[in-house]
Design brief:
about 280 residues; TIM Barrel; two-stranded antiparallel sheet; 10 helices; 10 strands; about 15% strand
Length: about 280
């Protein structure tokens, strides 16, 4: 059986996310530990953090994952944005430690026209500075992007370059989160067994299969190679039901924790998407 789950809200207290994940039938879940759309945040309430850890220990949930907020841009050439992004990353790593969360997912951002080489330098500098501020065992998962203009991390070569440029002491704190929508939109074929096998073979050759710690499982509104970052309900997008049957039949994917980030609308709810992923995985066994 796959381990699958949802992104859940922390409204009313961060510890309530554990309750919501259990009620919604998750095996694993993802949160934003604070408001994802602003720079300001409140410090973690120690009692809520302790309650979060206690509830996790007593639950049947196998993993909680944190996701960086949207505003930080680790690749930004703008000094003020870059500095704030470093601080946000360091703070989020410390919040993960306080909550007992082992993985923090981050987008890599946009070089804003400065070029990929400069973007890579800024990302590497940001990660190394944040790691030097927040010294713990939390693993930072680099999430691949969909290939939007000026975006970083849309290719496995991008991810390899960033990891290889990090200091030796920092590489052990780096993993990868692959998003299926982003992969497909960036030009990686996922609708056929040969396509999935070749995509993961290339990932292993360039980045290393052992670094893949999490999969964001989302369909795509954009076509193959479109560069469009628009998530869709499982099976209703361009990857399609057969594509996800193929994806979930791959052992490398099936063994990783799966988080759904599908739309919130009246066509299908989160529970139905989660149920469908499990059903497709079962049929693929």
């Amino acid at each position: 059986m796959v381990r699958a789950g949802l992104h859940v809200s922390i409204a009313g207290g961060i510890d309530r996310a554990v309750d919501r994940a259990e009620r919604r039938g998750c095996d694993v879940f993802q949160i934003f530990s604070r408001n994802p759309r602003g720079w300001k945040y409140r410090d973690l309430n120690p009692a809520e953090a302790a309650s979060f850890r206690q509830k996790m220990a007593g639950s049947g949930l196998s993993l909680a994952v944190d996701h960086m907020p949207y505003l930080p841009n680790l690749a930004s050439p703008k000094e003020d944005v870059h500095s704030r992004s470093v601080q946000a990353l360091a703070v989020e790593l410390s919040r993960c430690e306080a909550l007992g969360i082992p993985y923090l997912v981050t987008h890599l951002g946009s070089h804003l026209g400065a070029g990929k080489d400069e973007g890579q330098k800024r990302i590497v500098a940001a990660i190394e500075e944040a790691f030097s501020i927040s010294r713990n065992d939390v693993l930072l998962l680099l999430e691949n992007s969909a290939g939007q203009k000026n975006s970083m991390g849309s290719s496995f070569e991008d991810l390899k370059g960033i990891i290889e440029a990090l200091g030796a002491g920092h590489k052990s704190r780096i993993g990868v989160c692959l998003d299926t929508c982003h992969l497909f939109s960036a030009g990686y074929e996922l609708r056929t067994p040969d396509g999935v096998e070749e995509t993961l073979r290339r990932f292993d050759a360039l980045v290393g299969q052992e670094r893949l710690r999490l999969v964001h499982i989302n369909d795509s509104r954009g076509d193959l190679g479109s560069g469009l970052d628009r998530h869709e309900h499982i099976g209703l997008g361009k990857i399609g039901l057969e594509g996800f049957r193929v994806i979930l039949s791959n052992q490398i994917v099936a063994e990783r924790p799966l988080i759904l980030e599908t739309p919130v609308d009246d066509r299908r709810d989160d529970a139905a998407n989660l149920q469908l992923v499990r059903a497709l995985a079962e049929k693929s066994e």
